Amino acid sequence: MSRYIESKDNRIVRDCQRLSQKKYRDREKRYLVEGYNLVNEALSECAPLEAVILREGEPENADFPADTYVLRRDIFDAAAQTETSQGIMAIVRKPEYDREYLSSHDSGEDNYVVLDRLQDPGNIGTIIRTAEGAGYKAVICLKGTGDVYSPKVIRAAAGSVFRIPIVQVEDGRELRELVTALNKKLAVTCLNNDRFYFDEDISKGVALVIGNEGGGCSPELIENADIKVMIPMKGRLESLNAAVAAGILMYESMR
Rounded mean pLDDT of the chain? Predict the structure, then answer.
């Protein structure tokens, strides 16, 4: 049974508006997904939905495993995260993954991708999506990386956030401790190197670091890396888009 809302001051409307901001997503450990594809993905993966919000006139599903609200059209459109909304949103609780989770689920040969202060939501979401496609088992985010639960990242990841564990670490020291505890090799991309990615074995048991769009991997991670690789470049380019580089390297593991 859904509840009809026609006041912009209603709690559920305020929740949707707050969750457009990172500080509230962090504080409340919740985030927003929008559109039928993402809501259906969340449902199929049994993501912890707190509420489903529909625009007035959209078909209702009596099987939603969460409280359902129907918002007056103008109120829904004001609260939506996209300009041309499909008329459905959901509030989802963030899953919590940590070192113990990775340790208990690691096969010994699993690969992880590490995001070192990436900022572009499209890059972050695409890398998460590609990681799932390439069989990587987790995403590790260093402090300074953009919010993986922002609306733009969620859309770019196309549902992968519901399936692949995402773990946060504070700094390079904590990352090194985690990688060592999991018996992984820290593989870092860097330009000043004479080894290409196909000269090294990154097929299994690696934590592959993808560096910041402007500055690349941090000097600390490069210094402490077990494997240093670069992607060969022709022409006058110095580097590739971060998500493109990540795709090349992660699919090399599969090859």
Answer: 94
Select from 134, 105, 129 the least CA-distant residue to 204: 134
What residue ranges do the domains of the chain occupy?
Answer: 3-93, 99-254
Question: Under the phi-then-psi rule, with left for phi > 0, alpha for psi from -120 to 50, and beta for the rest, what region is 167?
Answer: beta
> What homologous superfamily does CATH list for 99-254?
SPOUT methyltransferase, trefoil knot domain (3.40.1280.10)
Classify residue 232 as exposed, middle or buried by CB count within 10 Å of its CB (0-12, 13-18, 19+). Answer: exposed
Could you tell me which residue, 145 or 194, shows the higher pLDDT? 145
* CATH, domain range 3-93: 3.30.1330.30
Q: Sheet harboring 3-5: ordered strands across?
A: 3-5, 67-71, 49-55, 88-93, 30-34
Note the pLDDT of residue 236.
87
Q: What is the pLDDT of residues 36-72, one digit of tens each?
A: 999 999 999 999 999 999 999 988 776 788 899 999 9
DSSP-assigned states of every residue in 116-132: ES---HHHHHHHHHHHH
**What is each CA distance from 165 to 39, 48, 187, in whole angstroms?**
19, 14, 20
